[in-house]
Sequence to fold (460 residues):
Amino acid sequence: MTQILKRSTVTLLAVPILAVLLLSADTQPAVHVAPMNTVGPRPVETQTQSSVIRDYLLAWQSMNAALSENRVDVVDASFVGQARERLINTIREQQNIGIRTSYQDKSHNIKVLFYSPEGLSIQLTDEVEYDVDVQNGDHALGSQPVHARYVVVLTPTESKWKVRVFQGGTP
Amino acid sequence: MRQAIPFLLAVAMWTSSAMAQSSSLQFPASIEAGTAFSVPTSGSGPATLYIVGPGDALQRKFQLGESIAFGADDLHNAGHYLAILAAGSSTQSTQFDVVASRQPAALSFLAKPSRLPVNLPNGVSGVAYIFDVFGNLVLQPQQVSFELSDESGAEQTRTADSHDGVAWVRMNSASKAGSARFQASDANVRATRIVQEVPGEPCAIHMMATPATGQRVLLQTEPVRDCNGNPVPDGTIVTFTETYAGRQSTVDVPLKRGIAQTELPAQAGALISAASGVVLGNEIRWSAR
Fold:
C-alpha cells in the first residue's frame, strides 16, 4: 500500500495521521511514504509510523523557521545531537554574514530504511523537493528549486522523535 | 546633460550584467569533505560568493577572474549546498554536494540490552553508525566486524555490511556469567561496550532436611545454579512448602550466598517441597526420628 498525501479532503480522510499537520501548515508539501511493513529489524508499529513522519515533517518546518529568521531557539524542538549543533552553527554563520535562507519544502518521498532492534533509532531517506530563497538584508540574492536526497536518523526523546543526523545529497 | 544620465545608467547596468554574464560558476558536482579545492571564475570586478545549506553557510568576497580557493577546513559538513555568485545586480547560482570522507573515523555503537541472562539466542543487539572525521555519516558500504567475548575469553564474531551508514547484528549471550566485551570495528576504528551477562533461572533445586531444635525441621538447599553452572544471584526467591493433614504452609526465602534455608514444624508424614520460579526441586517425606 502506498500513501500519497496531498491537500485533498479525500486523502486527508484516508490518512488521518497527518491531517492535523497538513491542516496546520501554511503551505503543505505533498508527502509520499513508502510502506513500512518490510522495514527491519524491528517492526514499525502504526503509531510509531505516524509519529516519526509527523515529527520529521515538523523538523522541516522548524528548520525553515530557524534559518529564515536566524532563530536558534526553535532548533531544539526538532533537532538533537550533531544535527542540532550543525543547524545552530549555520544560523550563527548566517548571522555573521547577514543572510537568511528559507527552505520551503514542496514534496517529500520518504522511505524508512532501518528501525533498530531496541527501537532507539530510525533511519529514513527522503527525496525532497524544496525551494531555497536567500536574502541579504532586504535584498533577494536568489531562489533555487532543489531536488535532493536526505539521509536522516531520528531518535526518540521524552515526547517526540528528533532528528539526530540530517545529511543531504544529490539523488 | 540630463539626457545623458539615463544613458550612463543604462550603460552601467549593462556593464554590470555583462560582467556577471561573462563570469561562470563552475563548482564540482561533488566534493569530499575536508578536501581543498578551487573554483575558477571569469570576468572582472568585485563579486561575492555565498554558499548555503542546512549544514553550513559561508561568504567569500573576491575579484571576478580569480579562482576562489577553499581550504580543507572550509567545507566539511556533508550536505547539499547552493552556491550563489553575486556580481553587481546580477547573480548566478549552482548546486553541489559535500560528501562524507570514505575513511571511517568514529562509530556510534549501541549495544542493548546492557544486562541479560546467559545463553540467550540473539539476546543482544549491536547497532553501529559509521562517521568520518568530520561527523558525517559514511554512506558507502563498509564491512563492520562485531565481536562479543566473555570473561573466559570465548568469542563470537560476526560481520555485517553497512547500508546508508548503519550496520547491525544480533548475537547470543555467552554461557558464562559476568562482564562481556561487545566490540564493533571498522578498519582502524573501534568502539566497545560492556554487557553484563547474568545467570539464568535455576536449573534444579536439591534440598536436604535435618532435625532442628524445638520440634522443627531445618531445610537447606544445595547451592542453586542455572543450567550452565552459574550460581543464581542472591536474592532469588526459593519457596518451601510443607503439606500435612490437608493443610499447607509456605515460606519464601531469598538465596544467601547461593543457598536458601529455613525451618518448618516437624510433622511426621509431612510432604516438603522446594521451588523457584517454574523449577520444582526434590520432595521430602518427613518422618519422626
Notes: Chain B is about 5% helix and 55% strand. Chain B has three domains: 4-99, 106-198, 202-285. Confidence is low (pLDDT under 50) at residues 1-23 of chain B. Chain B touches chain A at residues 29-30, 50, 52-59, 77-80, 82, 84, 86, 91, 93, 95, 97, 99-100, 110, 112-113, 125, 127, 129, 135-137, 139, 163-166, 168, 170 (CB under 8 Å).
